[in-house]
Write a structure and sequence with these properties.
The protein has 259 residues and is an all-alpha fold. 87% of the residues lie in helices and 0% in strands. It has 9 helices and no strands. The mean pLDDT is 83.
């Protein structure tokens, strides 16, 4: 039993170190920027932003509206007194901007882009397309990895901002229209409560989530064995690992800034 726990611990630590080493290799490509394939990298980056951000907007806005309106209506119902209304803005900022906004956005990006990135890179590895790029003098990590790292991270930042705005403003409008709950001075309370550090923490979380999701997904795709049956297995592992790492990053950032 103890030996099995030890083996799994060593395997987990080794995998984490390998993932960090992969991130170091990938981030190094951002500074070297070889000439071969540079135009393709720019084009693929724009395509990744469009795929991750623009095409995800309808789902993200819908989830943000539902989340914001439910939170506002529930809190407005339970904190209907004058003192309760005073802390309503604090609770909305705490839940939406600090916690749920980055996490829900990361979940949407994870389900939409991370899974697709793992499947795509793993399939390219199995079918020999990555080796073909190397034979043409193009670094696969630069051509395939860099656009997804930049595009997904940039899209994550934009989607996080859209989610927060839609959740607070849209949720307030829905709650105001659908109920007769007292929401006077709600937006004013949110404006007084939110601070620069809250916005900074949300942006930091969104950026770290985007990088974490991309690195884990690409690492699983690039490290797949040359067998088609391994592609879905690696995809499932990438999704679970990305979610787990995002939760850890979320806790770590919150502890650093607020504890």
């Amino acid at each position: 039993m103890i030996q099995a726990i030890g083996r799994e611990t060593i395997r987990g630590v080794t995998h984490l170190l390998d993932t960090l080493a992969f991130f170091r290799r990938l981030s190094a490509k951002l500074y070297k920027r070889p000439r071969a394939g540079r135009k393709l990298v720019v084009r693929f980056t724009l395509e990744q932003i469009y795929f991750t951000a623009i095409e995800s907007l309808p789902v993200l806005v819908f989830i943000a509206l539902i989340t914001g309106s439910m939170i506002i209506m529930q809190f407005a119902k339970h904190f209907s007194t004058l003192e309760g209304r005073a802390i309503l803005g604090d609770l909305v900022v705490l839940l939406i901007i600090r916690e749920l906004g980055p996490l829900f956005t990361a979940l949407i990006v994870l389900l939409r882009s991370a899974v697709a990135a793992t499947v795509e890179t793993a399939t390219m590895k199995v079918t020999g397309e990555l080796e073909a790029l190397e034979l043409q003098g193009i670094d696969p990590l630069y051509l395939v990895g860099v656009p997804r790292l930049i595009g997904t991270t940039a899209a994550m930042l934009c989607l996080f901002i859209v989610f927060d705005i839609a959740a607070i403003l849209g949720g307030y409008c829905i709650a105001w229209i659908a109920t007769n709950m007292p929401l006077e001075r709600f937006l004013e309370g949110v404006g007084q409560t939110i601070s620069g550090i809250d916005i900074a923490v949300g942006i930091v979380k969104a950026a770290l989530f985007g990088m974490t999701i991309t690195v884990v997904s690409l690492y699983r795709g690039f490290s797949v064995a040359k067998a088609v049956t391994r592609v879905p297995i690696q995809t499932s592992k990438a999704a679970m690992e990305s979610l787990l790492y995002c939760v850890f990053v979320n806790i770590a950032v919150s502890v650093v800034f607020y504890v």
